[in-house]
Amino acid sequence: FDAVREEKTRIAGAPPTEARRFAYIDRGFYAQQLERLLKFFPREQVKVVKFEEFKDKQRETLVSIFSFLGLEPLRSVRSKDRNVVPYERVMNWEERIFLYNLFADDIAKLEQMLGWDCSDWKL
Predict the structure, then answer these.
(1) What's the whole-model pTM score?
(2) How far apart are alpha carbons 40 and 91 in whole angstroms?
(3) DSSP states of 9-69 as a string?
(4) CA–CA distance, 15 with 11 (Å, rounded to integer)
């Protein structure tokens, strides 16, 4: 959580090509990112996949993505978790509330834009 509190300082001190990697909060505003993307591409050319759906239903989600792209689905998929690193500690309730309050409007907007239910992202 220290990284979140220090985000602006880290971004300000980083070269422009590396600043994005310190934008922990900014990268979480998915509706804003989608709005920017949709300025350049029509909605029917954009497929958005919820990570939880991909993780829980990997095969079905990949079939859906391949279909969207007009490609034949893969015959088989090897499931392998990567970059699995245990957290140093569990986020405390105050941190969860802080982050939820920060992202609540964006989550609601994303639900509206995509017709999603993001109740699993809420408190």
Answers:
(1) 0.79
(2) 37
(3) HHHHHS-TTTGGGG-TTGGG-HHHHHHHHHTTS-GGG-----HHHHHHSHHHHHHHHHHHT
(4) 8
